[in-house]
């Protein structure tokens, strides 16, 4: 049965949407799972390898922060969202802790504290904000991409 023009345009618009979201438990294993999910999604979106590796590294940092620092009751999840839109890849991580992260300068002897400076250095843009109308916060970063949805 042939599609009419409106149906064909609606199908194209749905296929152009490049937006995925994963809900993962607040557990150390979720960091590696998020890296795998993003790498697989980047392959499906045909993102360049260098962009993919940077995105996976930065996602790993945000997921690690959410797992380690978002001390909340058991059962809370970490939500990861990836959006490819108009030459930008935006990745966000949402957790149930209201404390916004802050950049700090790690000394050579510090065993932690380098994640957000890495995000700030490698991302085109990044930020953190409280969840509107909800509990917790979202930390995000944006990378430039030549791939268009």
What distinguishing features does this structure have?
149 residues, alpha+beta, 5-stranded antiparallel β-sheet, 4 helices, 26% strand, globular
Q: Which spans have pLDDT < 50 for at least 5 consecutive residues?
A: 1-14
> What global shape is seen?
globular
Termini separation: 28 Å
Give the overall average pLDDT. Answer: 83
- Sketch the major β-sheet: 5 strands, antiparallel
Q: How many helical elements?
A: 4
Protein structure class: alpha+beta
* Portion in helices: 25-40%
Strand content: 25-35%
* Secondary structure: number of strands: 5
Secondary structure layout:
Layout lengths: L4 H12 L2 E7 L3 H16 L4 H21 L7 E9 L2 E8 L19 H8 L2 E6 L6 E8 L5
Antiparallel strand pairs: 1-2, 2-3, 3-5, 4-5
Structure description:
- By secondary structure, the protein is an alpha+beta fold.
- Strands 1-2-3-5-4 form a five-stranded antiparallel β-sheet, covered by helices on one side.
- A hairpin with a 6-residue loop joins strand 4 (125-130) and strand 5.
- Helix 2 (29-44) runs antiparallel to helix 3 (49-69) and helix 3 runs antiparallel to helix 4.
- The chain is built from four helices and five strands.
- The radius of gyration is 17 Å and the shape is globular.
- It starts with a helix and ends in a 5-residue tail after the last strand.
In short:
This protein is 38% helix and 26% strand. With 149 residues, it is α+β, with helices and mostly antiparallel strands.
